[in-house]
């Protein structure tokens, strides 16, 4: 995960002084790269030592090391395509402006989400899913829709999958899990009480817990064995979990494709599924 994403994710939990420094860097990374510690401190009304300590709290030996990390993050940063706008959707925006802003938010969320998860973490997740006796998918609200979509995809590969939109049934299902099973829990906030309680019960039963959640510290991430991070821009999109849902779908689609590659007989399972559905469609249309 880039240093800019890490700072942004930690802002809410920072002390006021650190938050001012962090917010300035996130909002003005290019300017920050041209500023010395003294100049940055003057720009935000803080001391030079507070800037140095901020760098050290992030794991860098010096402010120069932090600047290098920011520079590398900027070099790898995805650029919004020409004609696409990334910004808050306002009441007075025209149809075309709303369309461009919405597309920009979706694209940026997906790109940041992919960048926030290392290949090592994705590979470890694949190992758990591939070797699982049963996979139980849970989520509420928009996350439940993503869980259902992923469950259908996993079923096409012949995986033993449990999913239900009713949280009471989800809790009953997880009570049957044990070692060798996997709980795949989706919650951007990481604070959905139903998903959290289900994850806690799964851990008690010796089940591995994979969480798909936001990069901020949250209760679900503390329960999980593995965290896959999603980065959403809900404040800018101003809609019900649109970008969070897109980020979750991007991750689950990636996992499905990688599992498809990994499983030798995957194409046969998918083909059988398509044939079964086509036969049903033919009967309904006749």
TrEMBL record:
Pfam families assigned to the protein according to its UniProt record, in alphabetical order: HTH_6, SIS
GO biological process: carbohydrate derivative metabolic process
GO molecular function: carbohydrate derivative binding; DNA binding; DNA-binding transcription factor activity
Span of domain HTH rpiR-type: 1-77
Gene3D superfamilies listed in its UniProt record: Glucose-6-phosphate isomerase like protein, domain 1 (3.40.50.10490), Winged helix-like DNA-binding domain superfamily/Winged helix DNA-binding domain (1.10.10.10)
PROSITE patterns: HTH_RPIR, SIS
Alphabetized UniProt keyword annotations: DNA-binding, Transcription, Transcription regulation
Domain SIS: 125-265
Name of the protein described by the UniProt record: DNA-binding MurR/RpiR family transcriptional regulator
């Amino acid at each position: 995960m880039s240093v800019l994403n890490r700072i942004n994710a930690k802002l809410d939990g920072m002390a006021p002084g650190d938050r001012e420094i962090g917010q300035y860097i996130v909002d003005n990374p290019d300017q920050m790269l041209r500023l010395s510690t003294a100049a940055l401190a003057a720009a935000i009304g803080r001391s030079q030592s507070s800037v140095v300590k901020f760098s050290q709290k992030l794991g860098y030996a010096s402010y120069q090391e932090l600047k290098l990390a920011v520079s590398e993050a900027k070099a790898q940063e995805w650029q919004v395509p020409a004609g696409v706008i990334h910004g808050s959707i306002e009441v007075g925006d025209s149809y075309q402006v709303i369309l461009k802003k919405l597309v920009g938010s979706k694209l940026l969320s997906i790109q940041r989400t992919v960048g926030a998860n290392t290949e090592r973490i994705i590979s470890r997740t694949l190992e758990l899913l591939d070797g699982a006796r049963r996979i139980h998918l849970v989520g509420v609200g928009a996350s439940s829709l993503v869980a259902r979509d992923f469950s259908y995809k996993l079923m096409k590969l012949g995986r033993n999958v449990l999913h239900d939109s009713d949280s009471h049934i989800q809790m009953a299902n997880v009570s049957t899990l044990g070692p060798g099973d996997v709980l795949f829990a989706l919650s951007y906030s990481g604070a959905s009480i139903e998903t959290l309680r289900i994850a806690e019960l799964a851990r008690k039963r010796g089940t591995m817990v994979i969480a798909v959640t936001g990069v901020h510290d949250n209760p679900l991430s503390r329960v999980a064995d593995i965290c896959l991070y999603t980065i959403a821009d809900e404040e800018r999109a101003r809609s019900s979990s649109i970008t969070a849902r897109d980020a979750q779908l991007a991750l689950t689609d990636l996992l499905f494709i990688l599992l498809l590659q990994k499983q030798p007989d995957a194409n046969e399972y998918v083909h059988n599924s398509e044939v079964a559905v086509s036969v049903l469609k033919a009967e309904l249309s006749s």
